[in-house]
Amino acid sequence: MRNYKKYQRIFGIVLDSVGTGAAIDADKFNDTGADTLGHVGAAYKGNLSLPNLGRLGLSNLRKEAIQGIANAPYPLAYYGKMIEISAGKDSMDGHWEMMGLPVFKPLSTFPQGFPQAIIDQIAEFSGRKVIVNQPYSGTNVIHDYGEQQMDTGELIVYTSGDSVMQIAAHEDVIPVEELCKICRFARTLLNGPDYQVGRVIARPYIGPDKDHFIRTANRRDFTLEPPSPTVIDQLHQAGYTTIAIGKTNDIFSGHGFIQTYHNESNMDGMNHVDEVMKQNFTGFCFTNLVDFDTLYGHRRDPQGFGQALMDFDRRLGKVLHNLKSNDLLIITADHGNDPGFRGTDHTRENVPLLVYSPSMQKSGPLGTRPTFADFGATVLDNFNLARGEYGTSFLEQLV
Questions:
Q1: DSSP structure string for 210-276
Q2: Is 262 annotated as a binding residue?
Q3: Is residue 298 annotated as involved in ligand binding?
Q4: Which cofactor does this sequence's record say it needs (predicted)?
């Protein structure tokens, strides 16, 4: 009979793209040597200040401490890292695997651009010409083609090394709802069997000219429908409260969540976390903070990445203060996006795992978890729900 502690509320926070060193299979992704946290720390030359993450055990989970973040002699949290078993290194793969649904079949990628037949259908549906149609940095593509898009009303379609179609348009030229309607149609073309793409992303931007264009928080992700129930669905079906903050709801195509919040930024997301923490509920709140990835990882900006980590760390202090004895906090990531690495794509990395509750009597290592699905298995275990095919709970290790 299991008699270890159970928690009323679990708060999961995904620091999007905050990897902690190359995965064992990084060579298959041409990512050998990637280390998001390590390279951000190196860029700050010992001046990266993450006191709250540090005292939880962020450096303890690594073979080499992050520059400026010494190992905590007595870390507050249980700490470890997780290995991804999914075929890709995208947000969808990572989040689905966390919630018990690894993606083993490689999704379609388009290093030469999308087939003309798909582009033609998007053009016909939208009544707009499609331009670019090749792998491109999101910020570079609006710099290079944004003014043309404003002048002509065309659609900027591009991709990356991940299984993703992105469609960009200026908000003053194509309203966000129209852009989302076009993306929803594009989604129907990429659900298989010939082409199966993880995400179609609406990428609205604003600004007067190419030197001042910025992408807005009106981004929307249109993902594949999960082919089978996830941990979120199981919780929902069992009557527990399920809350999504950030793009989490989009990643699961809206499945299973009863309360959702759209983030304008990481700090807006933390405002939502603070708001939810004031609520009395029994269940799971799943948060994604995407700025690390979109604003700094893809742009290969280690200084900005580090500042975003320090901003989060300050807000984390409030979360730690407000946690109740029957709350459990799990901090992790969905992949890497090393701003000190080559290219502009995600990097195949292990992800950190920090687990804390004020009621814990001890702390210590959780080791290297063999799959992200251990996260979801632990949530199910906590709420006395049957574990799925993937993942092993670490709840019993939390003393």
A1: TTT-EE-TT-EEEEPPPSS--HHHHHHHTT-EEEEETTHHHHTTT-S-SEEE--SSHHHHHHHHHHH
A2: no
A3: yes
A4: Mn(2+)
**Is 236 labelled a binding residue?**
no
User: Strand 220-223 to strand 214-215: parallel, antiparallel, or no bridges (unpaired)?
Assistant: unpaired
364-379 per-position pLDDT tens digit: 999 999 999 999 999 9
Phi, psi of 128 (to 5 degrees): -130, 145
Give 108's DSSP letter: P
User: Side-chain half-sphere of 136: how many Cα atoms within 13 Å?
Assistant: 21
Sheet bearing 78-82, strands edge to edge: 259-261, 241-245, 283-289, 9-15, 327-332, 351-356, 78-82, 364-369
Dist. CA 92–CA 26, nearest whole Å:
18
DSSP for 213-225 reads: -EE-TT-EEEEPP
- In order of their start, the domains of the chain are 9-104+225-397 (3.40.720.10), 116-218 (3.30.70.1250)
Token pair 């000219």 in the structure block, residue: 209
Report, in angstroms and rounded to the nearest whole number, the Rg of the chain calculated over CA atoms: 21
- pLDDT tens by residue, 14-48: 999 999 999 999 999 999 999 999 999 999 999 99
- Is this structure's pTM higher than 0.70? yes
SS3 141: helix
- Do 390 and 374 meet the contact criterion of CB atoms below 8 Å apart? no
CA 203 to CA 200: how far, in whole Å?
10
Question: Is 16 one of the annotated binding-site residues?
Answer: yes
Above pLDDT 70, what percent of the chain? 99
